[in-house]
Amino acid sequence: MTDLHIDNPEIQALAPRLSDSDAGVRRIALIALADLEDPDGLPWLIHALSHDRDAAVRAEAARLLEAWEEDPVVEALCAALADSAEAVREAAAQSLSELKTLDAGRVVLPWVSHADSFVRASALRALRELRLPDSVPAALQALNDSEASVRREAVGILGWLKRLEALPELARLASSDADTEVRRAATGALGLASDTSVLPALQAALNDPQWQVREEAATTLGKVGVSAAGPALLNALSDSYWQVRLRAARALGKLRYAEALTGLVELLGHSISNLRKEAALALGELQIAAALAPLQAAEHDADPEVRKAVRIALQQLQKVS
Questions:
Q1: How far from each other are the two terminal CA atoms of the chain, in whole angstroms?
Q2: Rounded distance between C-alpha atoms, residue 108 and residue 129, angstroms
Q3: CA distance 139 to 58
Q4: Mean pLDDT across 198-203
Q5: pLDDT above 90 covers what percent of the chain?
Q6: Helix/strand/coil for 170
Q7: What is the mean pLDDT of residues 139-146?
Q8: Is the separation of the CB atoms in 104 and 69 below 8 Å?
Q9: For residues 226 and 215, which has the higher predicted lDDT (pLDDT)?
Q10: pLDDT score of 1
Q11: Is the torsion defined by CA of 122, 124, 125, 127 positive or negative?
Q12: 101: helix, coil or strand?
């Protein structure tokens, strides 16, 4: 290994093992080096990530660099996204996803334009929770990327940043993207709006061929809180997948959509306890006296979680009785 001229005696003591011919010895030495939590050890970790001939050692270095946000570390992790070994790429991507500072995000940002789609997607993933305003133009452009993984991560950034200017593109992806997970992510991101502008796209998503997208659409309509979504959600109570029905029931409760009374009461007798529980809670949220008798009839449900939900709903209804 190249002589890094580090004077720290503890690191110097590890130097023979860090340069050992045995990859296992080098890997354990890297762990011992990281345990020192000394910035003087970073050059060794970066060198191992970039130059060690063993993929397991490089992957270990990538994992150990997770807690550091110095520019050389972030740059080395970004470069490792293009490593020949999948384990190294995955470890680097995970470490980058733990970044916390905007300065680190600015180092990552140029990698969003890399030729390799894994690098682009991983860079966008790292930027998502940093809420870096500078990442918006890159994310908007990435919505049209040829790779679904990149589009999914771009949607995540725009959703986290609540960028209203992205709504038309997000609506387009929610309705027509070829990838199920992109449609699902875009459908969820439409929740950043609080008006009827996203209603057509979300209503269309409630009829998506994939139940996961329909489930996300029902959830998002509950978050948006637009009463005009009531009829579409009421129809979703009859969806062939119980997961969609559950989210639709929850959304109808949030909307206090009184017309959902009959459909929710029917769900109180469903064989799936999670649906009965959600229906009971939604009936309480409707805040109408007509929900009282059906809930009282469900007080002795066989499932304790359903009974608890019924008690909560009945307490809510006491306010209107």
A1: 79
A2: 13
A3: 29
A4: 94
A5: 88
A6: helix
A7: 97
A8: yes
A9: 215
A10: 45
A11: positive
A12: coil
Residues 217-236 have pLDDT tens digits of: 999 999 998 899 999 999 99
Query: By the 8 A CB rule, do 236 and 244 touch?
Result: yes
Query: Residue 292 pLDDT more than 60?
Result: yes
Q: Residue 113 CA to chain centroid, in angstroms? A: 22
What is the per-residue pLDDT for 53? 96
Buried b (16+ CB within 10 A) or exposed e, 266-304: ebbebeeebbbbbbbbbbbbbeeeebbebbeebeebeee
CB 256 within 8 A of CB 285: yes
Q: CA 115 → CA 121, 126, 165, distances in Å?
A: 11, 17, 27
| DSSP one-letter code for 69 | -
Contacts of 113 (CB under 8 A, 6+ apart): 120, 138
**Whether the Cβ atoms of residue 250 and residue 278 lie closer than 8 Å to each other:** yes
292 to 264, 283, 295, 299, 303: CA distances (angstroms): 12, 9, 5, 11, 19
C-alpha 163, offset from chain centre: 17
Within the chain, residue ranges assigned H as helices are 9-18, 23-35, 42-51, 55-64, 71-80, 86-96, 102-108, 117-128, 136-142, 148-161, 167-176, 180-189, 199-205, 211-224, 230-236, 242-255, 261-267, 273-286, 292-297, 304-317
Q: Six-digit token pair at 183?
A: 């449609």
The answer to whether the beta carbons of residues 201 and 188 sit under 8 Å apart is no
> Which residue type occupies 140?
L
Interval 68-77: pLDDT, tens = 999 999 999 9
What single-letter amino acid sits at 180?
A: T
Angle at 102 between CA 100 and CA 105, to 5 degrees: 85
- Average pLDDT on 310-321 reads 87
Over range 302-307, report the average pLDDT: 97
**If you search the block for the tokens 């699902």, which residue do you land on?**
184
Q: What is the mean pLDDT of the chain?
A: 94
